[in-house]
Amino acid sequence: MHPLWKLLVLLSLLSLPSALHKQPWPDLTKAHANSKSTLVRIITQGLMKHNAEGRIQNICLLDSLNNSKHMAAGMVAWLIGGSMSLHEQQEGSANITNIKLDYGRIQMSVPKEWFSANISLEFDIDLRVRPFKNKTATTHARMNLSVEFWLEKDEFGRRDLVIGNCHVEPSSVHTTAVTEDLSPKIKHFVRNFRQNLEKVIPHQIEDQVCPLIGEILRQLDVKLLKSLMACCS
Fold first, then answer.
1. How far apart are the C-alpha atoms of 132 and 124, rounded to whole Å?
2. Cα–Cα dist 131/86, whole Å
């Protein structure tokens, strides 16, 4: 055989396995994406129905800082660096605004019948306290909340939905100061406020959002989850 023909035959044989392997993947990828989008839609609609953003917005951060088991009593007064009456603390506020929730990260493992939902949250905290003449200092916070759930067979071979741990990932919690035009005293307070906020806010978010996610997931039909898995198998 002519060397050129040998080369052409060899190239065609090398390309054949590649073509065979590539062909099924577009449909499989599409099915995988559709399954994820279905779960995203269910979780999103459920959290919207239960007003998750409103619950987050109503968190009383100053009370949480003062009452949390992670903080010493009177933490707000201590952060300011001086005596601060209860009345003065009550006149202060830390309001959560501009909440953004991204529900789009869903992971699936078909062989293990396992799912993981990851929800990213971002919001601003407008802080005002009386000793600073009601000057508003805004802090931006962001974090990820994750929950795992899977199908587990009982002794009769029937599948039940099991909901795992729902928590804010500690490494995902970040706060940044937004307001720059502040006096050195206020900047010092805001820096301490942010550091202690990172210890308290994850637990507050978990208390508000995790019960809602649990309720949404418990309403999922096991047959639906099995069908979503089948689309990707």
1. 19
2. 12
pTM of the complete model beyond 0.70: yes
Contact (CB, 8 A) for 202 and 171: no
CA distances to 71, 115, 119, 136, 230 from 169, rounded to whole Å, are 20, 17, 10, 29, 30
Q: Residue 93 in contact with residue 128, Cβ under 8 Å?
A: yes
Q: Return per-residue pLDDT of the chain as tens, 233 residues.
A: 555 444 444 444 444 444 334 434 344 344 445 667 778 888 888 999 999 999 999 998 887 777 765 554 445 554 554 445 555 555 678 899 999 988 766 666 656 778 888 889 999 999 887 666 667 889 999 999 999 988 888 888 888 889 999 999 999 999 999 988 888 877 888 888 888 888 899 999 999 999 999 999 888 888 888 777 766 55
Q: Which residue ranges form the domains of the chain, and what is each CATH number?
A: 25-232 (3.15.10.10)
